[in-house]
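Suppose you are handed a protein chain with no further information: no name, no annotation, nothing but its sequence. What can you learn? This example shows the usual starting point.
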Amino acid sequence: MSVRDTEPPQGTALAGLRRVVAASMAGTVVEWYEFFLYGTAATLVFNKVFFAKGTSDLDAILAAFVTYAVGFAARPIGGIVFGHFGDKYGRKKLLQLSLLLVGATTFLMGCLPTFAQVGYLAPALLVVLRFMQGFAVGGEWGGAVLLVAEHSPSKSRAFWASWPQAAVPLGNMLATVVLLVLTSTLSDASFLSWGWRVAFWLSAVVVLIGYYVRTKITDAPIFLAAQQLAEQEKATSFSAIEVLKRYPRGVFTAMGLRFGENILYYLVVTFSITYLKVHVGANTKVILWWLLAAHAVHFAVIPLAGRLSDRFGRRPIYLIGALAGGTWGFFAFPMMDSKHNAVILSAIIIGLVFHAFMYAAQPAIMAEMFPTRMRYSGVSLGYQVTSIVAGSLAPIIAVRLLNTYKSSVPIAWYLAGAAAVTVVAVLFARETNGADLAAIDLADAENLAAESNRKVAA
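A reasonable first move is to predict its three-dimensional structure. Written in structure tokens, the prediction is:
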């Protein structure tokens, strides 16, 4: 068991770890600034700019959410491709590429013509760019969290690896601030005409900052050692296929852990905008202020939940989040219906606090399921494939349920069912708190050697 992996970092090692955390967070802030910007614009702008109006406002919003789902469909493909090459060539190189790609596609979204100008070509171009954006984001998460997890000591891995997760609400906050400034300084007509484009063009600035910060770090020693060994053995197997073959339990457990968490998140931060705007009749600026405050709380709670996961274990903290998250819809939507600002804000904050108890521990628990040589592929598969049937469909299903039943109760039951899936996954998961990544690699190497010896003997 390596000393580096068990003792808390001190001095130069601590400074280096903090630098890695900052680099990982910088890119993740950029990625999620752009991803959340799209999700918010889907409700506030795109349904009016890129789509023909249907029989109701919800019809156009539903069409916008379908393009939103396209990005999620692309994320597993990005996760597989980036995971394969990230396991082969390094986390840093692929993270820089994903950052540039998502920045370019987001900037181009701000340049698209409207439905009034080019008809159905407008949503078609939006779908293409959304697919490319989702592809890039699909490769971002695994590399960002592993960059930190593989540099972290085992006793505090959940805490350190939770910081890239905390960068998600930070990116959301940045997008919300930009939208608030634009909607507060421009008329509704000006914002819909050109103001929203500025928010997308600003992505170029934050991308350059994030890219520069990421040039200052290196891959973890444990990855460099695994990479050298793979080159010596001339490993040629495709990571995604091999990880499914050798660690199916890890992949499917990760999917289950992700399912309820992902649906809860997109109901709280994306569908809630629609619910408050269309069903409750709330003002756009007020909604954005609510989300800004909620994201700030989310940012603060995630590292705290990571610390609790290091102290009490991954499973107990995750289980609390899953059980509590399953109840959110039953009380949160009635709270929103009250139309009282403080009550609505509380509903959103409570949802994100429940979410944080699951989200904070994800990088550590998923990283501890796989050996270094296929870890990027393993965590990307478990995390991103689930997004197709979870987060991508959550706003669409919720809008359809609301449109059909005119009630939030079916949505609450939908969330409860999703949370139940995650509860089952937590119960079947192994407790990995304190696991040594070097020991996981050693066990994997021994299994490979034993398999090779059986083949020779046969």
